[in-house]
């Protein structure tokens, strides 16, 4: 879905009772990366900001359920 | 002093008659990382925090109360017209026996709200890190509810609330930097 989602491949046991999930995900929202917000960042228009929940594109980290979206295996593999 | 505006912070809509969603949402009403806990936590911690971040805690506490009101509206919309059969089907019968169609500060498991959900250490750094953790936990809770909910209109409100947790997490992180007093030193955090 986005760079805000990371994924990993959990270990699957031979005798697990449920079919193993091949990939699990977690969210890494933009507040982890922004640091102290600099003045003068780009802003959304007021109506859009009210809808999105933030004035700042740099702080917008949307969420869709990883179980429902097309890329249900999660976002990109975390290569770092 | 409080000034009350008789409207919700963000419009709340539920497009399906699904009282079961109320059972999930109540976690954000009276759960450990819910909006009530958040509001009370910040409103209490602000007294023992340096002047330059008191306003931040007060502002965010007020916003959390408006989130609490949104959650209440969601829960009430989903349960107010539920028949006893629908209550049973949704697994809400224990709540109904105790509270009827009224709301109560409890978590998704029916455990009543407890002040021990909130820490107030009186140490600015300890309290702010608690607040950052609380915001991330509330964000995760919203994600889990969105995962379980198939109501797009309800999820729209929940996604707004989740984004606010991200913004609050950012501001608390900045508050830590302000108290460290080296935020102007052009460091990369």
TrEMBL record, chain A:
InterPro entries: Spore_coat_CotJA. Residues 1-24 are annotated as: Disordered. It comes from the Bacteria. This is Spore coat associated protein CotJA. The lineage of its organism: Bacteria, Bacillati, Bacillota, Bacilli, Bacillales.
TrEMBL record, chain B:
One of its GO terms (molecular function) is metal ion binding. Its cofactor is Ca(2+); Mn(2+). Ca(2+) binds at residue 59. Binds 1 Ca(2+) ion per subunit. The keyword RNA-binding does not apply. Pfam families: Mn_catalase (PF05067). The keyword Metal-binding applies. It comes from the Bacteria. Gene3D superfamilies: 1.20.1260.10. Keywords: Calcium, Manganese, Metal-binding. Signal peptide: none annotated. Mn(2+) binds at residues 35, 64, 67, 135, 168. Belongs to the manganese catalase family. This is Manganese catalase family protein.
